[in-house]
């Protein structure tokens, strides 16, 4: 697959305002957590103005996320924490970063353009893997987001959507991922699975629930955490912490299966 340029260096040219995403992206219904929106029927034509506009939009969104990540816990911005609208304010937790990335993933998927999808989704997946090592672990926003990436990568590897329909650009055997792309996916999957296990294994690694925004389907009881010194022990006693173990084991599970088939190797993590 043809490669696409990713984020420009911070010193590069930036437009004063972000261009609007394609109308098909804006008008698509918001998917449920962990799911993907319906893509457009045909890929964007390579070199077209629509493709260029979309690439510019995604790159600038990802650059903004990258800058906020670099400014995390910055003392220079600490006085601005009470104002979430301050431009460039550093992220306080992983949940904030994932909330910014989630709509970008949707726009990428709606494009229905395999070269753009694989390039930018790999960039985002690598970013999340890195962030897992930089913030206290927050299960509620993390696992649904990883499930969305898992669904995207596994669908691209098969060339078929979750409902069994051929993805745009994959009709007639076209659009298949290269071996290099599959190996890159496998590397990020392995790295992310290790990062999740390490993050959840750290003492008191679970973030304070106040830093995790609840969704429409969540309640405070779903993520009932204490703030005393025995918070992790209390969670284990109540069974609340153990409920995440299944989610940990399922990180990128669909992608692992498809990679095992595509590369004709044993599932990732099996050294036998």
Q: Can you put this structure into words, describing what you see?
A:
This protein has 272 residues and is mainly α. It contains nine helices and no strands. The chain is globular. Residues 1-32, 208-240 and 265-272 have low confidence and may be disordered.
What is the percentage of strand-forming residues?
Answer: under 5%
Q: Please state the CA-atom Rg, rounded to the nearest Å.
A: 19 Å
Count of helix runs: 9
The average pLDDT score comes to 75
Distance between the termini: 32 Å
Q: Helices and strands: which structural class?
A: mainly alpha
The arrangement of helices and strands along the chain is HHHHHHHHH
How many strand units? Answer: 0
What best-fitting shape do the alpha-carbon axes yield? globular
For the sheet with most strands, the description reads:
none
Helix content: 40-55%
Low-confidence stretches: 1-32, 208-240, 265-272
List the helices and strands and how they pair.
Layout: H1 23-26, H2 49-70, H3 94-110, H4 114-132, H5 139-158, H6 179-201, H7 231-238, H8 245-249, H9 253-262
Helix pairs in contact: 2-3, 2-4, 3-4, 3-5, 4-5, 4-6, 5-9, 6-9
List keywords for this structure.
272 residues, mainly alpha, 9 helices, 47% helix, 0% strand, globular, disordered N terminus, disordered C terminus
């Amino acid at each position: 697959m043809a490669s696409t340029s990713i984020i420009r260096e911070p010193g590069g040219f930036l437009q004063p305002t972000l261009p609007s995403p394609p109308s098909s992206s804006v008008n698509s219904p918001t998917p449920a957590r962990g799911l993907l929106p319906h893509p457009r029927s045909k890929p964007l034509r390579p070199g077209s103005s629509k493709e260029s506009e979309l690439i510019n939009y995604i790159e600038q969104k990802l650059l903004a996320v990258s800058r906020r990540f670099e400014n995390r816990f910055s003392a220079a911005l600490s006085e601005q924490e009470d104002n979430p609208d301050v431009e460039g304010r550093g992220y306080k937790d992983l949940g904030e970063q994932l909330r910014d990335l989630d709509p970008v993933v949707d726009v990428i998927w709606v494009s229905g353009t395999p070269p753009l999808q694989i390039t930018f989704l790999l960039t985002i997946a690598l970013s999340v893997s890195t962030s897992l090592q930089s913030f206290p672990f927050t299960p509620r926003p993390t696992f649904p987001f990883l499930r969305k990436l898992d669904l995207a990568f596994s669908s691209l590897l098969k060339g078929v959507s979750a409902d069994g329909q051929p993805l745009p650009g994959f009709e007639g055997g076209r659009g298949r991922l290269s071996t290099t792309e599959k190996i890159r996916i496998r590397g990020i999957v392995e790295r992310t699975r290790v990062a999740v296990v390490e993050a959840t294994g750290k003492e008191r690694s679970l973030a304070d629930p106040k830093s995790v925004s609840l969704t429409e389907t969540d309640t405070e009881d779903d993520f009932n955490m204490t703030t005393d010194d025995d918070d992790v022990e209390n969670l284990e006693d109540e069974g609340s912490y153990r409920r995440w173990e299944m989610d940990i084991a399922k990180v990128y599970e669909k992608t692992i299966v498809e990679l095992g088939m595509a590369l004709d190797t044993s599932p990732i993590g099996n050294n036998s």
